[in-house]
Amino acid sequence: MLKNTLILISLFGMLIAEGNPLKFSGQVRQRFEMVDKDFTDTTSFNNQNYLRTRFAVSFDNDDYSSFVQLQDSRVFGTETNTLKDGTADALDVHQAYFKLKNIFGMPLTAKVGRFEAAYGPQRLIGAVGWHNIGRSFDGVVFNYTNDFANVDFFNFKQVEAGTVDDEDDFNVSGAYAHFSLIEGHKTQAFAIQDGDRLTFGGYGKGAISSVSYELEFAMQYGAESDDVNYGGMMYGLNAGYKIGSMTLSAGMDFVSGDDSTTTDVNESFNTLYATNHKYYGYMDYFLNLPVNTGGLGLQDIHVKMSGLKVAGHIINVAYHMFGANQSADSFGNELDITLVKKYADNVKIVAGYSLFMPDKLKTENGTSGSFAYLMTIVNF
User: Fold this and answer.
1) Rounded distance, CA 336 to CA 141, Å?
2) pTM for the complete prediction?
3) For the segment 350-362, what is each residue's pLDDT rounded down to a tens digit?
4) 118 domain residue, yes or no
């Protein structure tokens, strides 16, 4: 017993010793939520505590690097007896990959394994960091970089069916390119193939003095079935004005819906693997598009204030007006208020309150929905 203890102490000392090439990082995030989203007077808030714990080890040199991140995601009380339940069924490998650098002496890098993928502003492929688990992909990414462009070529395995000729497998593949055209401005283009559906478009972002802009557009084509093709589109337009630490902005996000008069084309745009929590209200009524709009599409006109500093706190406010692309009716309006406090160098506290005021497309009785949360994030 003493011998084993000494070995463990020695190994731990080697890991934390100065000059050790391994780097360690982690995060513990706890979030208390009060949710009342069903638009009825007969129910009240449902309260839950979420806990996400991540621990990672990485190694990096000139030729290759590796990264492994373990994650435990749970809701307080789901293990009814923590004294007897030691299954750790909420524990998983969130990321585990290696990178090979300068392949064939070229500025080419290969990343292989399981990893988060977040491209552009995450309107189509994102890591969904708000979620208690978050999204990661199994696959490979080849990155080629020169003075003009930085391009990722990726292939993610979504389904491995194990059938003959891989005919029941499902892959997501494509390319995302960042171009160096104008200093201080982002210019990106992408193409994403998932199954028989092709999504392609572009993204631009920049600032001139105190005025900023953001533009993204995408279109979808392909065969949904023998008789129906995809034909959807999406765009986002935003403009902002910076006053000191605060930014005032306004914009519109558009996601097309299906036109019932065209039977050979499905115009509903699918947002694929997006981080929709960032865009369509923090109450998450529109996470799964087009499903959450019944195929009617979405028009989100929004105004925002971000970065307002008051007594050591940062206040962000957003107001959304949600309408349908294929209907004259409205889904409703949403107000999101967020308060951020830096508690210590590696500790942040975030509190939020959201109010959804539904219209005809969301409810008949007009009862509002509410959401409040208090989140603490500790990084190490």
Assistant:
1) 36
2) 0.91
3) 999 999 999 988 8
4) yes
